[in-house]
Amino acid sequence: MKKILWLFFMCLPMAIQAQLTSSTLPIIVINTNGQTIVDDPKKICDMGIIYNGVGQTNYLTDPFNHYFGKIAIEIRGSTSQQYPKKSYGLETQDSIGENANVSLLGMPKDNDWILYGAYPDKTLMRNEFTYSSFASMQPWSPRYVYCELVINNQYVGVYTLLEKIKIDDTRVDIANLDIDDNAGDSLTGGYIIKIDKTTGGSPNQWTSAFQSKVKFLYHAPKYAKLTVPQRNYIKAYVDTFEKRVYGPNFQHPTWGYAPLINALSFVDFFLMEEFGRTVDGYRSSSFMYKDKDSKGGKLTCGPMWDFNLSYANADYCDAYDTTGWQYNFNAICPGYSILVPDWWNRLLQDSNYTSLLKCRWNQLRAGQFSDININHWVDSVAAVLNVPQQRNFQKWPILGTYVNWNYYIGLTYADELNFFKKWMKDRAKWMDSHLPGTCLAPLQITDIANEQLDITIAPNPMSTHTVISFYGNNLTGSKKLYVFDMTGRLVRQQETSSISGFVFERNQLPAGIYIVKIVTENHQYATQKISLE
Q1: 337-374: per-residue pLDDT in tens?
Q2: Are 12 and 33 spatial neighbours (Cβ–Cβ below 8 Å)?
Q3: What is the mean pLDDT of the chain?
Q4: Between the CA atoms of 1, 16, 162 and 67, what dihedral angle is there, to the nearest 10 degrees?
Q5: Which end of the chain is more exposed for a tag (fewer CB within 10 A), N or C?
Q6: Rounded CA separation 106/493 (Å)
Q7: Do 198 and 169 touch, CB atoms closer than 8 A?
């Protein structure tokens, strides 16, 4: 059977050479065996990946040399299902139909993946820019790799192979709840919840006691897998946070909201939502998680998700405006069935919170959110997508055409990118002068659960090797080093138990700018850029 499947896949390239013969991106080929992929249930199909390595060309006549096996696949998304270019959720499986953890395109092993197909976002970058940015702000953000996709002999465009949000030591690294974790510290984590509408996820939810149009959904574990004490615990924790943040003593260091949340994560979430002016921001696809109390288990915002209608890619509710605040959505468009939690506005009444907010923004603007760095990121990704995007828009000829809910309609791909960059520049400039708060302690942007490490990289720029040294408290145990290229793709991973640092060998990495990230067992982290000459 395996030999027959291999022969079938080897014949596929000949049928689609007119559209795609080779790519600098990995090529993913799916055969549905005559089935139609639907929203539900998942269909068992075959998938092969052609990937010859960093900087290499991938040919459709090449064998499947990276992955070749079964997948269970379905259409994913809610509103996005209206578009002809679909996105898919898939699980990698073994020969007997069990989920199989595999490493795809350099990402850590798992079995839950997403093939995201940008359609209204004609830059093909809005989600990816957000995920890359948040990855250098918080311990985890979805990793992704650009690819080109073929389904049943048909080229379907540029896609992003993306990690799904789930509890795992390589994703949202919090405790796994067991069915018998119903008391004491074991009951206190871990949970992932989200604020959202009820489609596209678990239908099981609860409503905020303070706002009838704010809904909390159980994301992981799913509602059906949670015991009654577990469901009640996380609901009560969120209820307590809301009660305190709306209460008369909300700024009290003990009886207020502060002891219940990871403040830096709330700040980073706010800044990412506001910088993107996300039309669905705060009120949809907004994730939060909580670990066990013994592991610093405060309510933590993130990771970011679903930013395709961000950065002025929506023509309603002022989402295109570089001025104004998205957390004021309820006043701008009050008629929607789901609204923004009022506690985002309430937090801004606490000077301790706004000081941290202002300090963090200043830090980001001096680094990854500087105009120069943002333009460099966009231009770097544009270079990677130069030829693939041309094929994508031959398949989907939507440049110069309105797609729900475009605000700007560029005639060319370059037009879309130039607008994207200019809008971000103008938005950041407005936030520079209008963000509330005064930075009172610019050198102390830390959080108990996410303490920033100090690192040095020398030499930097490097030629063949460099030493990455780190300094901080409680540095026992393993430390992981992740190296990402400027598209956000993970290109190198190392681990050490050293208390001083890593020796980083260049090996075959091409010249360019990379993001270095270190994460420790006790959730300290650091990010910095490194240049390879």
Answers
A1: 999 999 999 999 999 899 999 989 998 998 889 999 99
A2: no
A3: 89
A4: 30
A5: N
A6: 9
A7: no
Q: Largest Cα–Cα distance in the chain?
A: 70
Q: What residues contact 202, with CB distance under 8 A and at least 6 apart?
A: 217, 218, 219, 222, 223
Q: Does 198 have pLDDT greater than 90?
A: no
- Can you tell me the mean pLDDT for 421-446? 83
As to burial, measured by CB atoms within 10 angstroms (0-12 exposed, 13-18 middle, 19+ buried), residue 43 is middle
For residue 449, give the nearest of 261, 190, 244 by alpha carbon: 261
Q: What is the pLDDT of residue 325?
A: 98
Pairing mode of beta strands 215-220, 205-207: antiparallel
Let me know if 507 is exposed, middle or buried by CB neighbors in 10 A (0-12, 13-18, 19+): exposed
- Which amino acid appears at position 432 of this protein? D
Q: Which residues contact 254 (CB under 8 A, 6 or more apart)?
A: none
CB 165 within 8 A of CB 191: no
* DSSP type of residue 82: G
pLDDT of 439: 83
Q: Tell me how far apart the alpha carbons of residues 400 and 160 are, in angstroms, rounded to a whole number.
A: 23
Task: Give me 185's structure tokens.
Answer: 């510290």
Measured in whole angstroms, the distance separating CA 182 from the mean position of its chain's CA atoms is 31
Give the alpha-carbon dihedral of 138, 143, 146, 152, to 10 degrees. Answer: -140
- Residue 467: pLDDT band (50, 70, 90) is confident
* Continuous segment of H or E residues that includes residue 485: none
CA atoms within 13 A on the CB side of 375: 9
Distance between CA atoms of residues 80 and 95, nearest Å: 32
Pairing of strands 22-23, 43-50: unpaired
Query: Which H, E and C letters describe 185-235, residue by residue?
Result: HHHHCCEEEEECCCCCCCCCEEECCCCCCCEEEEEECCHHHCCHHHHHHHH
Stretch 150-175: mean pLDDT, rounded?
A: 96
Find all residues with CB under 8 Å of 34, minimum gap 6, and list them: none
Asked if 330 and 299 touch (Cβ cutoff 8 Å), the reply is no
Nearest Cα neighbor of 64 from 49, 47, 46 is 49
Q: What is the pTM of this model?
A: 0.82
| Domains observed in the chain | 2-163 (no CATH), 454-532 (2.60.40.3080)
Selected residue with higher pLDDT from 532 and 277: 277
| 227 contact partners, CB below 8 Å, separation of at least 6 | 179, 182
- Give me the residue label for tokens 């990946």: 49
Average of per-residue pLDDT across 247-259: 93
Q: What is the pLDDT of residues 365-415, one digit of tens each?
A: 988 899 999 999 999 999 999 999 999 999 999 999 999 999 999 999 999
Contact 13, 19 (CB under 8 A): no
